[in-house]
């Protein structure tokens, strides 16, 4: 497993995941998939980590999808194992108990779209491009479709996956795939601003809240309300909630401990 394919660093309560294959437009390798799972284990259990940020090395690409020339495109059994591992990774990212931010610094296509959409917040450079070009090489964006249809209106989603055209950052913003678009020189400033805010929130409150929101997504209206009422009871009973309310009354900044 090549550790250089994915760089993991913890700084100021944030775990940074950097896809480190710039010469290959940060195509995701089999080694990187395995490392993603291992590093997510670290980030989930590390109390010092309160948020995670996913990005790509350099300025050209966030992630250009699967590295079809690195074994995935030649051996069907290897490819199937990688596809299942990628699907498992999207599940983990989508339901990760800590807030996740995608820093989209460049081209975000194919499987890279999955990483981006699995994150809670997506901040993109205005020069970033997006798309699902799989149809142009006889493939189809299968696993990421589950995320696309949960973020984009169905007709726009079908147009994107069937035509395989390149989209601008502004188009991606209008479609609901990204949350913010900034000029390239402001990307790091905006990402750090968001991450700095996230790490000050209650870890236990966000964990329970995220779990509740994802669990209620496919429920009926009545079922969702019942679940969310129950989960609110859980949040209210935490030490962080008591601290937050007390700090509000005392007009001071709360100190959350994740309990």
Provide a descriptive summary of the structure in words:
The protein is α/β, with parallel strands linked by helices and 259 residues long. It has 2 domains: 3-198, 2-enoyl-CoA Hydratase, Chain A, domain 1 (Alpha-Beta Complex), CATH 3.90.226.10; 203-249. The protein is 49% helix and 16% strand. It contains 11 helices and 10 strands. The chain has helices at residues 30-45, 68-72, 76-94, 111-118, 143-151, 154-163, 169-175, 187-198, 203-216, 221-236, 239-249; strands spanning 6-11, 14-19, 51-56, 61-63, 100-104, 107-109, 121-125, 129-131, 167-168, 180-182. The protein has a 6-stranded mixed β-sheet, sandwiched between helices. Helix 3 packs parallel to helix 4 and helix 9 (203-216) runs antiparallel to helix 10 (221-236). The protein starts with 5 loop residues before the first strand and ends in a 10-residue tail after the last helix. The model has no long low-confidence stretch (mean pLDDT 93).
